[in-house]
From TrEMBL:
Keyword Transferase attached: yes
Top-level taxon of origin: Bacteria
SUPFAM superfamilies in the cross-refs: Acyl-CoA N-acyltransferases (Nat) (SSF55729)
This protein's UniProt keywords: Transferase
Entry-linked Gene3D superfamilies: 3.40.630.30
InterPro entries per UniProt: Acyl_CoA_acyltransferase (IPR016181), GNAT_dom (IPR000182), LAT (IPR053013)
A GO MF label: acyltransferase activity, transferring groups other than amino-acyl groups
N-acetyltransferase domain mapped to chain residues: 2-150
Protein name: GNAT family N-acetyltransferase
């Protein structure tokens, strides 16, 4: 069995290390962990993990940010999606993103989600995300994508968020 839950303070080094091989830029592990611990954006969001219930192993992680562009809309940004290198290609990140969205839809009535993809679009398209039109893209190397069960991309009447 697997479950999603909010990350604890004790989880954070394991979470940071899930992306070390991709985001570590050849720096020493200690320096990378300190950089992550000091990153303001990592302190602004809420971290979630997918955990194996029998072993308590962390299988995947992500961070969710509040992006509310107006008082009547609930908008979230999903970022820093990572899985330990030896556990990739098992569907853990897919399950975590899917279940986190379901949780936020049910518990917070959130129906608008953005993310920036650095891995191409196919993975997120399988989850129902759509690529924003070219004129809405803000960055060359990261593609902004949107997900909503209720609202089409044409109904967005607020500014597309910057990379979060």
């Amino acid at each position: 069995m697997k479950k999603i839950r909010e990350a604890t303070k004790e989880d954070m080094i394991n979470i940071y290390m899930m992306g070390f091989d991709v985001w570590g830029d050849d720096m020493p592990v200690e320096k990378y962990i300190t950089m992550c611990q000091d990153t303001i954006k990592y302190k602004k969001g809420k971290w979630y993990v997918l955990e194996a219930t029998d072993t308590k192993e962390l299988l995947s992680s992500l961070i969710v940010y509040k992006l509310n562009p107006s008082e009547d809309l609930i908008v979230k940004g999903i970022g820093s999606i990572a899985t330990p290198a030896n556990s990739r290609k098992n569907g853990y990140a897919f399950l975590l993103v899917k279940e986190t969205i379901n949780k936020l839809e049910q518990e917070e009535n959130c129906n608008n989600f953005f993310l920036y993809s650095d891995i191409g679009t196919d993975f997120y398209k399988r989850l129902g995300f759509i690529v924003l039109p070219n004129e809405s893209q803000k960055y060359k190397d990261s593609i902004c994508m949107y997900y909503s069960k209720e609202n089409g991309i044409d109904s967005i009447s607020f500014d597309i968020p910057n990379y979060f």
